[in-house]
Amino acid sequence: MKKTLIATGLLLTGNAFAQEEVKPFTMDGELGFIATSGNTETTSLNAKLSAHQELEQWSNDFLFEGLYKKDDVAIDDETSESQTTAQKYFLSGQGNYKLANPDHRLFLFGSYEDDRFSSFNYQSTVAAGWSQKLWDNETTKFEYSVGPGYSFAETSEGEDADSFIVRGALGFNWKISDTATFKQTMSTEVGEDNTKSKSISSLSAKINSSLSMKLTLTFDHNSNVTSDTEKLDTQTAVTIVYTFF
User: Fold this and answer.
1) Average of pLDDT values for 82-104?
2) Which stretch is the leader sequence (predicted)?
């Protein structure tokens, strides 16, 4: 039942997007891969797909992120074996409906996260509220959104952890030069038993019109976790970015 409600929230977002004629659309794909052998055996893969759609009445954002890591783990002093040490994916969609002042908007947001090595089997959010673009010029852009919602979650022990939440998010873009861009996004979902927060800082440099190199620092925090799990996950990634549109 809960997963049906989650899917419904995401579909409602998609239906809202479909009401307008398709107009300018951008999409970027990122890929980072590391493999080592010898004294240490490690395989790491992270991927990301992000898209933005700017319509007459809607401004829409879509995101997919995936992470997989396998390491050589010591069993005892003499033996070791290859084990999966990270496996995570996250997807989200947000539609912003423009009011009479197009910088003032109403938003609808949906997300789903599955992290095999967290305290949760899954975490998902549906939220709606107020969104505003404070400014957008040739160099910088700043926008935020805030509103109530509902979090669907299941702990690693199989217990329900659903609750009403308040979700807040902000995004800042800074075009440092014609080839370099800094981006900062932050979000927090405050619930009765858990507060989930995420910060993503990135610096990208263009190689050519379609390719870029990107350095990203991600902080992912849950306030309520099991005793054997860290509250804060940190990820540093260097990726190649390809701009499709």
Assistant:
1) 94
2) 1-18
Query: What does the pLDDT read at residue 147?
Result: 98
Closest CA to 71 of 45, 99, 96, 106: 45
H helices within the chain, ranges in order? Answer: 2-17
User: Residue 177, exposed/middle/buried by CB under 10 A (0-12, 13-18, 19+)?
Assistant: exposed
Contacts of 26 (CB under 8 A, 6+ apart): 51, 52, 53, 243, 245
**pLDDT at position 153 over 60:** yes
Instruction: Give the Cα separation of 68 and 217 in Å (integer).
Output: 17
By percentage, how much of the chain surpasses pLDDT 90?
71
d(CA 245, CA 226): 42
180-191/163-175 β-pairing: antiparallel
Structure tokens at 112: 């789903």
Partners of 239 in beta bridges: 214
* Whole-number pLDDT of residue 79: 76
Tell me the HSE value of 183 on the side-chain side, using a 13 A CA sphere: 12
CA distances from 239 to 26, 48, 152, 204, 236 (A): 18, 9, 31, 9, 10
Q: What angle do CA 9, 10, 14 make, to 5 degrees?
A: 120
Please name which of 63, 70, 56, 109 lies closest in space to residue 89, comparing C-alpha atoms: 63
Residue 15 contacts residue 95 (beta carbons within 8 Å) = no
The CA angle 132-98-152, to the nearest 5 degrees, is 70
